[in-house]
Design a protein that fits this description.
Helix content is 44%, strand content 13%. It is built from 12 helices and 8 strands.
Length: 291
Amino acid sequence: MNKKIIFKGSAVAVVTPFDGAGNINFKMFEKLVDFQISGGVQAVVVCGTTGESAVISSEERDSLIKFSVNKFKNKVPIIVGTGSNCTEHAVSLSTKAQELGADALLIVTPYYNKTSQLGLIKHYEFIASKVEIPMILYNVPSRTGMNIAPQTYLELSKIENIVATKEANGDISSVIKTISLCGDDLVVYSGNDDQTLPILSVGGIGVISVFSNILPDISQKIASNSKDAAELLMKYQDLMEALFWDVNPVPIKAALKLMGFDCGKCRMPLAEMENEKEKKLKKIMEKHGIL
């Protein structure tokens, strides 16, 4: 099966900036994405976890997708997060994103109510039957409480418009088995910045990155496996770790603010980063010459 590759290298899971009144700050969003594109990012993911998709309204979601498509689709693919723990709602989100011009969809596994491996297959089969654009699965057990098994990936890879997965299960052995089973029928992207190179080494082709929000050029060099990729990964490992000292996207928004990109606070229930942690984050960024 000859499936479309959406991107190779680094895609940014971009934050959603808010203004002082708590509304989406489209001017800042444009500034952020321009910074990413100038840094070499190969795709932009909007309305993902890092974009606080759980707390933005349907109207805000549609506006953000429209804005992204109108401003940036001629430069990079626009991938939209459309996952839900309700299959019908995921279909609704996915068909709307397709209608608004998204290039691809990023669809997290069901969460909270979860499902079985058979349920996963039926869930994704049903969504795929309702859309035409490519789908990227998203496996992140630390958030959802469930995992996509390699054999389940094999079954899902037989569906024409399921083209890739964002793999954040932290289990390299499982990733190896998935790639071995699926071959060219399922592209694998790392969902963890610090595991990009291990996943590339066994056949992955890139990363969907939080880290890219602040250092898109470095993220792209690592994700394209440049000659100094390993050195860069080791160098910035402490910063990648610091970006998860609190619930994502709390730390990355704090880091962006320190760089002059004031993206506002995260919406509740997320709270501000603790002062001591933010001070330590600032010191690491200073050490790397970012500030």
